[in-house]
Design brief:
Elements (H helix, E strand, L loop, with lengths): L1 H32 L6 H9 L9 H26 L3 H56 L1
Helix pairs in contact: 1-3, 3-4
Length: 143
């Protein structure tokens, strides 16, 4: 029972520390390093998935990236140090597993926001089409 409680405490500590550091990096430091005021990680996701930053909730995306990254770091670190007693081996395993999982999560986040962007574009097209139809009907009534 003590081991479980200790692992839960480590998980929470790691999650909070990584979340705060990563979110600070994305929000504050990332804006200073880029001329577009978009952190490099987010710029890669936006470019790779052709996402228009003006059609999504950008702050929500940053928060989502921070939460998922912190969750991956905390879970992988806690699980690896529980099962692997060698710190060097655990470090290598943690590095490669976190790298793979983070890349996968960033890809899934990109797919999600790509779909949202396409939905917004489709809604605007439909709204424009409806406006044109109304204008045509008004023109026919006037003639």
């Amino acid at each position: 029972m003590e081991i479980l409680l200790e692992n839960v405490i480590w998980f929470v500590i790691i999650f909070i520390v990584i979340f705060l550091m990563f979110h600070y990096y994305l929000v504050k430091m990332g804006m200073k390093t880029s001329k577009d005021k978009v952190p490099p990680l987010v710029a890669i996701i936006l470019y790779r998935h052709e996402i228009d930053i003006h059609k999504i909730n950008y702050k929500h995306m940053l928060l989502e990236i921070s939460i998922y990254t912190a969750l991956v770091f905390a879970l992988v670190t806690t699980i690896c140090f529980y099962f692997i007693k060698s710190y060097i081996l655990a470090g290598f395993v943690i590095f490669f597993v976190i790298l793979a999982l983070c890349l996968m999560i960033y890809h899934l986040i990109g797919i999600k926001y790509e779909k949202l962007t396409k939905e917004v574009i489709e809604e605007k097209k439909e709204a424009n089409h409806e406006k044109k139809e109304k204008n045509r009907k008004k023109m026919k009534k006037n003639n």
